[in-house]
From TrEMBL:
Organism: Steroidobacter flavus
Any one GO molecular function term: asparaginase activity
EC nos: 3.5.1.1
Lineage: Bacteria, Pseudomonadati, Pseudomonadota, Gammaproteobacteria, Steroidobacterales
Superkingdom in the source lineage: Bacteria
Domain Asparaginase/glutaminase C-terminal: start-end pairs: 225-334
The protein, known as: Type II asparaginase
Gene3D superfamilies: 3.40.50.40, L-asparaginase, N-terminal domain
């Protein structure tokens, strides 16, 4: 569909919730690598995207302005609650969230589980600050608005639009520290592609999300502590003991291979599980699944397998799961469904 000739009253209405990131970053010159994230407001960002007002009526709200390395559950809860407050309004056809790329995948997954609407929710960022030569932010933002304004984006959960690609929150991951083509969805592939406001759709995510999600954060002000612990050669098990001592309610192991860890870590994780801390085995390997009872006896040890979720997303799901009392079986089922 072409949006260019739309009259004002036909134009979809898109609200942008801005949170910062490199897309709102600024440097002193156009060619330096150092810059400050979250320095530019949403109004200034919109002013740098010629023609965006032709594809939608766009309204911006500044919710936060941080580099996404400083994204917090406080801010994410605020964003989720704001989405849930405005989504039912007739003057909102779609929502765009500007966000840094560092933790975009976790935030997208968090909102995928906590936003309660079928309307398009699209996250967008950039790899180059707004002041850079060939900044990628303006076209990414244009495409994100084009996706949020597209009725075909409805019901696909939270999407991430960058570099002309449309990814699903469940499956995307950041793969390059600096390249413009940083996001990939290695297991499941793209949901679609976006080109100057026109979209082609390939897939719909199969995982439960948004309106089918059982997680309700309307009265939540804090999430339980869940730590991610990286497994490697000769790792000391006492990192796991320390996490338990610090009050973690859940621990995600970024395991080697199929969610494995050495004997010292298995012993410590099994102690943690016996004390009631939920232990999830994920993998530091970027593709493939972590299955139950493959090299470790999860049934005996009381562990959960993260299946397709990477450690950072497995942590989000566990933090939400732990908002209420659940059996190990029920928690495992969440990893199969979400
Ligand atoms: N550190 C930045 C951030 O995540 C990087 C970026 O946005 O690309 O906010």
């Amino acid at each position: 569909m072409c949006w260019y000739a739309l009259a004002d009253q036909q134009k979809p209405k898109v609200t942008i919730l801005a949170t910062g990131g490199t897309i709102a970053g600024a440097a002193a010159t156009g060619t330096q690598s150092g810059y400050t994230s979250g320095a530019v407001t949403i109004d200034a960002m919109l002013a740098a995207v010629p023609g965006i007002d032709k594809i939608a009526t766009v309204k911006g709200e500044q919710v936060a302005n941080v580099g996404s390395q400083d994204m917090s559950f406080d801010i994410l809860l605020k964003v989720a609650k704001r989405i849930n407050a405005i989504a039912p309004n007739a003057d909102v056809n779609g929502i765009v969230i500007t966000h840094g790329t560092d933790t975009m995948e976790e935030s997208a997954y968090f909102l995928n589980l906590t936003a309660k609407t079928d309307k398009p929710i699209v996250m967008v960022g950039s790899m180059r600050p707004s002041t850079a030569v060939s900044a990628d932010g303006p076209l990414n933002l244009y495409n994100a608005v084009g996706v949020a304004a597209d009725p075909k984006a409805k019901g696909r959960g939270v999407l991430v639009v960058m570099n002309d690609q449309i990814h699903a929150a469940h499956s995307l991951t950041k793969t390059s520290t600096t390249a413009v083509e940083t996001f990939m969805s290695p297991g499941r592939g793209l949901v679609g592609v976006a080109s100057y406001g026109k979209n082609d759709w390939y897939n719909s995510p199969i995982w439960k999300h948004t309106t089918q999600s059982e997680f309700d954060i309307s009265n939540v002000t804090q999430l339980p502590r869940v730590d991610v612990i990286f497994a490697d050669v000769d790792m000391p098990g006492d990192l796991i003991d320390a996490s338990v001592a610090k009050g973690a309610k859940g621990i995600v192991i970024a395991g080697v291979g199929n969610g494995n860890m050495n004997k010292a870590a298995v012993d410590a994780a099994s102690r943690a599980a016996k004390s009631g801390v939920i232990v999830v085995r994920a993998s530091r390997v970027p593709t493939g699944l972590v299955g139950r009872n493959v090299e470790l006896d999860d049934d005996k040890l009381g562990f959960i397998a993260s299946y397709e979720l990477n450690p950072q997303k497995a942590r989000i799901l566990l933090a939400l799961a732990l908002l209420k009392q659940r059996s190990l079986d029920d928690i495992q089922k969440l990893y199969d469904m979400y």
